[in-house]
Design brief:
This protein has strands at about 5, 10-15, 20-25, 35-40, 45-50, 55-60, 65-70, 75-80, 90-95, 110-114. With about 110 residues, the protein is an all-beta fold. The chain is globular, with a radius of gyration of 13 Å. The protein has no helices and ten strands. A six-stranded mixed β-sheet has the order 2-10-9-4-5-6, with no helix packed on it. Strands 1-3-8-7 form a four-stranded antiparallel β-sheet, with no helix packed on it. Strand 4 (about 35-40) and strand 5 form a beta hairpin.
Length: about 110
């Protein structure tokens, strides 16, 4: 079964940067459209960025211009570079296919202090 392992979260001040990583256990699944999702307490889990197998990207309006999604096929890893972080970016971040099609990983907590 495919496993997703997110890492790279942490505590950062507003305006700071973090780089999240998502390791996909089965390389064939990393060929799908992959996305980064986030869920803040009391909120639903939302897609914030996605990347197709050909490298086409799409972002939620709330992160456009600040976040960059990328992928490295040789290591089956998907990245999310997050710059100019805001307190409202605080959430648990998850990766999955788009639409979600494999079991969710544990996620990685991102906390942005004001």
């Amino acid at each position: 079964q495919v496993q997703l392992e997110e890492s790279g979260g942490g505590l950062v001040q507003a305006g700071g940067s973090l780089r999240l990583s998502c390791k996909v256990s089965r390389s064939s699944f990393s060929m799908n459209t992959m996305g980064w999702y986030r869920q803040a307490p009391g909120n639903q889990r939302d897609l914030v960025a996605k990347i197709t197998s050909t490298g086409r990207t799409n972002y939620a309006d709330s992160v456009k211009g600040r976040f960059t999604i990328s992928r490295l096929y040789v290591t089956s890893t998907v990245y999310l570079q997050m710059n100019s972080l805001k307190p409202e970016d605080t959430a648990v971040y998850y990766c999955n296919t788009d639409p979600p099609g494999v079991p969710w990983g544990q996620g990685t907590q991102v906390t942005v202090s004001s």
